[in-house]
Design goal:
Elements: H1 2-24, H2 30-48, H3 50-62
Length: 66
Amino acid sequence: MRPFLVYTASRLGLFAVTLGVLFLIGIHNVFWLIVISFVISGMASYVLLSRQRDAVSEQISKGHRG
């Protein structure tokens, strides 16, 4: 369960940071702010969170729940 929580918290953190940065640089339309943040944080997590994603995948493939 721990790798899943770490990965999820990391994804949410990346989204929040991206949202904040985009807001500070001048994107104030809420719809576009969320959409662009989602896309950028998704791409960043693909690169930055590969180790955590592998840990979650391993946990799922082994069938561990704790």
